[in-house]
Design brief:
The chain has 291 residues and is an all-alpha fold. 76% of the residues lie in helices and 1% in strands. It has a two-stranded antiparallel ribbon with strand order 1-2.
């Protein structure tokens, strides 16, 4: 490559180019402030003393008194927050396993099903994702009652896939369609069976889509509120999304410090997970849309 080719070419209209760059930076700066502001305020509040937090003359965005870990002590020693975190983790893990077990073969089958039938089934599955959880709650409550799973975490394990599976099937269907079918056919010509070609050739290539399914399903399990509030009322069995608002809001008394501390503890692993797999997450969401 020559030196002239290596050098970036100067913009034809420098003033217009700089104005456009300035507009892009300004828009990104506004979006960044909007996205980070809740996290910053949450972190500041979580480390504030009550005398600082509830004093109306103090600036809420700064530490007017030395920071403290008292809010975290209240959270872990005076509530059942650790139980709620464990419940949320294992319910989320089981929901991810069930979602993967159902959505991977369904997504692959729809991706290889040609013709109008495959398109109509894909649209039908995606439309089920658009049904509001408040409507699904009515028949699911009957199922939970029939199975005698009221006040049992398995009620959430069995109902959460109804929220995650339709979207994950639709997502994986698009992802499998983006993979060249010639790779699978070459493995079949080399003597591999259908299952072996799927597990050894397609699944490794579908890793971004699978990671997207895992992250999306975990997010659903952590954030879901209606089913967790309705199907589980015992404090030891609650998830974080229900335990925090029901035990840290008593009447008109809000324990803002402990509430923000709980939000900080729960949001950090999710934020780190998204950050670690951001590229693969975006690839998994867009792969089916680009082909």
């Amino acid at each position: 490559m020559s030196t002239a080719q290596a050098r970036p070419q100067a913009p034809a209209h420098p003033l217009r180019w700089y104005v456009l760059r300035l507009i892009v930076v300004a828009v990104l700066a506004v979006f960044l402030v909007q996205a980070l502001f809740p996290f910053v305020w949450m972190a500041i509040t979580a480390f504030k003393r009550d005398s600082d937090l509830y004093n109306p003359t103090h600036n809420p965005f700064f530490f007017n008194e030395p920071p403290t870990l008292r809010q975290f002590s209240i959270l872990f020693h005076e509530t059942k927050f650790s139980h709620w975190v464990v419940n949320t983790a294992w319910i989320g893990l089981l929901t991810v396993i069930i979602t993967l077990a159902l959505s991977v073969p369904a997504g692959y089958a729809l991706a290889r099903l040609r013709g109008r039938l495959g398109q109509q089934l894909a649209i039908a599955i995606f439309l089920t994702y658009l049904i509001p959880p408040t409507l699904l709650f009515l028949p699911l409550s009957q199922v939970v009652s029939w199975l005698k799973l009221q006040d049992n975490d398995w009620a959430l394990v069995l109902t959460y896939p109804s929220l995650s599976v339709p979207f994950c099937v639709w997502l994986l269907m698009g992802f499998f369609r983006s993979l060249p079918q010639e790779l699978e056919e070459a493995a079949l010509v080399d003597g591999a069976g259908r299952l072996s070609a799927f597990t050894r050739v397609l699944l490794p290539l579908a890793l971004p889509g699978l990671l997207t399914v895992v992250i999306f399903t975990l997010t659903v399990a952590v954030n879901e509120f209606i089913y967790a509030l309705t199907f589980v009322s015992i404090s030891d069995l609650k998830t974080v999304s229900v335990g925090v608002p029901t035990d840290l809001i008593r009447g008109d008394v809000f324990f803002w410090g402990a509430i923000m501390a709980s939000a900080l503890v729960v949001s950090l692993p999710v934020a780190l997970l998204y950050n670690a797999f951001l590229d693969r997450f975006v690839e998994g969401l867009t792969a089916g849309a680009l082909r």
